[in-house]
Design goal:
This protein has 14 helices and 18 strands. It is an alpha/beta fold and 393 residues long. The protein has a 7-stranded mixed sheet, with helices on both faces. A 6-stranded mixed sheet has the order 7-2-1-11-18-17, with helices on both faces. A 3-stranded antiparallel sheet has the order 8-9-10. Strand 17 and strand 18 form a beta hairpin. Helix 2 packs across helix 11.
């Protein structure tokens, strides 16, 4: 009889894990609180070891077609003057011709399409309670259903409900990095194309990211904030008010960004943070991706960690029971996770200097970078070699 698994979350880690566990003979159910596969969202990176995961899944050609070729990253000073204009790989450690940058929606659609005919999806529902026993995990759903599974996996993001049910409040594992950000779409008034323009003042940054030649750009507003504004995380009006207050006297295009923010219906606001946990499982329940080890967008590695973590968890469970499988997953994956989480200091120093002195030092480094080639790929991106064993089709 097939072992049964419930996966909470249908973004990146969830569908990738569902794909591999199905291949290893599990009966898989995925529950997702959204009504459909998640679409839209800002672009994400797939690099290093994660490229091999999507290649083995058969979706790499599709993602190559969806690749966004960001050609220029321009940094501006507080007065709007140009500091430096670079190829993005010079700053990110990316590898031209190999690394992928795709819209989040293009990735989630590709992953969903790869698995939708083979596993059960429950949309517009979520886990309400979990109760573990000797024979499995008894799950009650918000929609009223009750079922029992051999294993449950939380792939439900930074603010994971599964993690809260298993290990307690998020605050225990939430490592706030001192910044908050808001991202939304707005009209492309500058005629930007395949590029990002970033304005910096001490402790504040505003960026416009043009994925293509279209009429819209992604607008990012990021600012240093000493403590997480937990009230704002739950209150969209408070989020808009906080952004308007912090950026009230900012120059460049920021007044137009704040005006667009007032009418934006897609604002996403959060703290810049990591999830760091001493262990990723308890009993028959485990966590994967951001729910277990969110690295923050400052590393550019959240999507790649989700893909690699999903592959490693499935491979660990292929021919082991849950106890041995979860132990193997942590043993073989944790060092890779730690190396990538530790990239965060580098990202923060480059993108969001918090003092005038740090900003001037950053700008001097950027001017020097225009005269030297990229330092090449970050070793952390490829610091794990996937197990060779892949399941039969």
């Amino acid at each position: 009889m097939k072992r049964t698994v419930l996966i909470s979350g249908a973004s990146v880690a969830g569908p990738a894990l569902a794909y591999w566990l199905h291949r290893y003979g599990y009966a898989v159910t995925v529950v997702e609180k959204a009504g459909t596969p998640r679409d839209g969202g800002y672009p994400v990176d797939v690099r290093g070891t994660a490229l091999e995961v999507v290649r083995r899944m058969g979706v790499l050609p599709q993602l190559r077609k969806a690749h966004i070729e960001l050609r220029r990253l321009t940094f501006l000073d507080e007065d709007g003057g140009r500091v430096a204009s670079l190829h993005p790989h010079t700053v990110t450690g990316g590898v031209a011709g190999q690394d992928l940058e795709v819209r989040r929606g293009d990735l989630t659609r590709a992953l969903y399409a790869a698995v939708r005919d083979d596993v059960e999806f429950l949309f517009s529902d979520s886990i309400d309670t979990l109760r573990q026993s000797g024979h499995g995990v008894d799950v009650t759903f918000r929609g009223g259903g009750r079922r029992t599974f051999d294993v449950v996996v939380g792939a439900d993001g930074v603010h994971s409900r599964t993690r809260e049910l298993l290990f307690g409040p998020e605050e225990r594992f939430h490592r706030y990095l001192g910044y908050c950000f808001g991202v939304f779409t707005m009209p492309n008034r500058l005629g930007l194309s395949h590029e990002t323009v970033m304005w910096n003042a001490p402790g504040r940054a505003a960026a416009l990211y043009a994925v293509e030649d279209g009429d819209e750009v992604h607008a990012f507003l990021t600012f240093a904030h000493p403590a997480p504004p937990f009230d704002a995380f739950r209150d969209p009006a408070a989020q808009r008010g906080l952004l308007a207050e912090v950026f009230a006297d900012a120059g460049w295009e920021v007044p137009g960004m704040l005006a667009a923010l007032r009418g934006a219906d897609d604002l996403f606001f959060d703290g810049v943070s990591q999830i760091r946990m001493p262990r990723w499982s308890g009993g028959r329940v485990a966590l994967v991706g951001d729910a277990a080890y969110a690295p923050s967008f400052l590393t550019g590695q959240g999507t790649s960690l989700a893909l690699v973590g999903a592959y490693m968890l499935a491979a660990s469970l292929a021919d082991r029971d849950h106890t041995a499988g979860f132990a193997a997953y942590e043993h073989h994956t944790r060092e890779f996770v730690t190396l990538n989480q530790e990239l965060v200091g580098e990202g923060g120093a480059t993108l969001f200097p918090t003092t005038a002195q740090a900003l001037e030092q950053r700008n001097a480094r950027l001017r020097d970078l225009t005269a030297v080639p990229s330092a090449g790929p970050r070793p952390a991106h490829s610091a794990l070699t996937l197990p060779e064993r892949t399941p039969p089709h």
